[in-house]
Amino acid sequence: MKILTNKKIKSLFCVILFCIFTFALISALVMAFKIENAAALIFAAALAVFAAILIDLYRYFSKQNKIIEKAEMQITEYIAGNSKARIECDEEGELYKLFHKVNSLVSILNAHVEKETNSKQFLKNTISDISHQLKTPLAAMNIYNGIMQNEASSPEILEFTALTEQELDRIEILVQNLLKITKLDAGTISLNKRTENVSEMMKEIKNHFIFRANQEGKQIDIVGDDNITLLCDKDWLTQAIDNIVKNALDHTQRGGKIRIEYRQLPSAVRLIIRDNGSGIHPEDLHHIFKRFYRSRFSKDTQGIGLGLPLAKTIIEEHSGSIEVDSELGKGTTFIITYAKMSPRL
Fold first, then answer.
1. Phi-psi bin for 36: left (phi > 0), alpha (psi -120 to 50), beta?
2. Which one, of 308, 294, 297, 253, lies nearest residue 275 by Cα?
3. Cα–Cα distance measured from residue 322 to residue 240, given in angstroms and rounded to the nearest whole number
4. What is the 3-state secondary structure (H, E, C) of 188-223?
5. Are strands 257-264 and 268-275 parallel, antiparallel or unpaired?
6. DSSP 342
7. Distance (Å, rounded) from C-alpha 142 to C-alpha 165?
């Protein structure tokens, strides 16, 4: 039997069998020699045997409980981040086979984590190298395109150079967003969190887009308490909100409105970015934060599909959450919630 491969279990069974054999032998001797008060003696022997078995069972299960508690402590340590935590499994038996399997699983998980870390680092380095390599030709192409615009004499060439400039801007934005996402994924960016005034941040974001909004006949409103503060990395968080506001402008027609509202909740700060644009198709709502996702219903041919995923990643790095609600033809609302934390001293 497999259960008897464990020496402790085998010893337990031997003790129980010995107690039962001893009781049977004593009972047989008492009855064979017709000793007075035989029933009392047999009863006393039965109690003694029963007590011995109980004591042995208690000792065995106490030891087993300590072994399981030690195993649980090692598992808890591993969950807490100690990748070197292991369960002792030097003895034989089914329980120790299970512990060995757990240790093997831990080793496999560590190998996967290391491989994933190396892959992310390789991807980060590769994209970083590519982005740096692209900067020089992109800068040169922008200069050449600017020269062509200045020297162009026909409307066709001017139109061509304007389109070229748009495409060059798209390539530059794509490279920058890819670089930012890979840095965030690889965990190589340390957020420089400070207490920032939310109203001032939203005003800066509005000023960033006000020229475009005026050119396109759109309106950006900001509403909220001027005294609300948030512990955050201003540059990164501004980038996230920028991407959401840009998305709202991209999907809002002339005469449309974008409203940025910020509120102080009991234990959080909430930002609400609402537009009255074209809205998001229900089929796309669960996919808009996927990288490079392109809806079959969208008429946007300029989008790259990295703005909203980057925004979500930055927000989550700030221990925040983002939700979206939308209705076709009526607009979209992004709700961002940040748990309010105090700066560390």
1. beta
2. 253
3. 11
4. CCCCCCEEEEHHHHHHHHHHHHHHHHHHCCCEEEEE
5. antiparallel
6. P
7. 7
pTM: 0.57
- Residue 273 to residue 258: CA distance in whole angstroms: 7
d(CA 299, CA 307): 17
Amino acid residing at 219: Q
Per-residue pLDDT of the chain (345 residues; tens, 9 = 90+): 555 556 677 777 788 888 888 878 878 877 777 777 777 777 887 888 888 888 888 888 888 888 888 888 888 888 888 888 888 877 777 777 888 888 888 889 889 888 887 877 777 777 777 777 777 788 888 888 888 878 777 787 888 888 888 778 777 777 777 777 777 766 666 778 889 999 999 999 999 899 889 999 999 999 999 899 989 888 889 888 998 999 899 888 898 999 999 999 888 999 999 999 888 878 777 878 877 666 665 655 455 567 888 888 889 888 899 999 988 888 999 999 988 654 443
Tell me whether strands 268-275 and 320-327 are parallel, antiparallel or unpaired: unpaired
* C-beta atoms surrounding 306 within 10 Å: 19
Give the C-alpha separation, 59 to 12, whole Å. Answer: 10
- DSSP-assigned states of every residue in 63-100: HHHHHHHHHHHHHHHHHHT-TT------S-SHHHHHHH
The gap from C-alpha 272 to its chain's centroid, in whole angstroms, comes to: 23
* Short-list 145, 135, 129, CA closest to 172: 135
The tokens describing 127, both together, are 């994209």
